[in-house]
Design brief:
Length: 269
């Protein structure tokens, strides 16, 4: 498996890791500059030359994986028989500098309803390193032409067209995914709220709408859905940062995105 594929695998599994790269080489060394190794909690992919260099780098990478908010760092190795390494001696005669770059678990967000507000929100969230799921039952909301504004996205975008049961996407989401419900149809919103409360492992659940809408939904979730008050309270509504007024789609999207970014920070260990 290539190092690129290994990084993608860790991201898809929402597992932390470390990318180890031979940054500089002076004299003789097992691998040239640019050689890479990906280290996960239980596995490794690639190689930076084996021996003491690789073993020490793996040890340190696993220490970083267990650290809150780890930072990139450099490690230097002298390869001669006068240096006793933790995992043996390498006497190639050169010197190697290795860069360790932590690979954190990125946030994941699912936006159900890519209408005026949903698209504006997607434009903001797409500028961040996260997994962004865009879900809509209307095919015209998810055309390539309409989503072209996301072409330069930093985020990894997943588009889901679900003409019948958009709530089925919930079961496909990775653990910890934050869910925002803002479809064009109140019946669809209600079904998504019920399904989200029944889906284990989700992150926050947000619902767009008025106080009157939430009063009806809350009663329905209790009487028809059988959810208790504590479970229903997992749904946050209204969504967004308090104090930001305005009903324009872009204003609402900024408010919701700001509140979500704050949630990301609170989720960090």
């Amino acid at each position: 498996m290539t190092w690129v594929a290994a990084v993608a695998r860790l991201r898809a599994r929402r597992e932390t890791g470390v990318l180890v790269t031979v940054a500089t080489v002076r004299g003789h060394a097992p691998r040239k500059a640019g050689a890479k190794l990906v280290v996960g909690r239980t596995g490794t992919w690639g190689s930076i030359g084996g021996g003491n260099i690789e073993a020490v780098a793996i040890d340190r990478a696993r220490e970083l994986i267990g650290t809150a908010e780890p930072e990139p760092e450099l490690m230097e190795f002298a390869l001669n028989d006068k240096v006793a390494g933790r995992h043996g001696v390498q006497c190639c005669g050169g010197a190697v500098t290795v860069l360790l770059e932590p690979l954190p678990v990125v946030p994941a967000v699912a936006v159900f309803g890519v209408g005026h507000v949903g698209l504006e929100l997607a434009r903001i969230l797409a500028r961040h390193d996260l997994d962004l799921h865009l879900v809509d039952s209307r095919p015209d909301m998810l055309t390539d032409e309409r989503l072209a504004v996301l072409a330069d996205a930093v985020a990894r975008i997943h588009v889901h067209h679900t003409p019948l049961l958009p709530e089925e996407v919930l079961a496909q989401l990775a653990p910890g995914t934050h869910v925002l419900i803002m479809t064009h149809d109140h019946a669809e919103d209600a079904a998504l709220c019920d399904a989200a409360l029944r889906t284990p492992g989700l992150g926050s659940i947000g619902l767009i709408g008025s106080a009157a809408k939430w009063t009806r939904f809350r009663k329905r979730l209790a009487t028809e859905g059988g959810h208790d008050d504590a479970t229903i309270d997992r749904i946050k509504t209204p969504i967004g940062t308090t104090g930001i007024s305005g009903k324009e789609p872009a204003v609402i999207a900024v408010s919701v995105a700001a509140d979500l970014l704050r949630t990301f920070q609170e989720d960090r260990p």
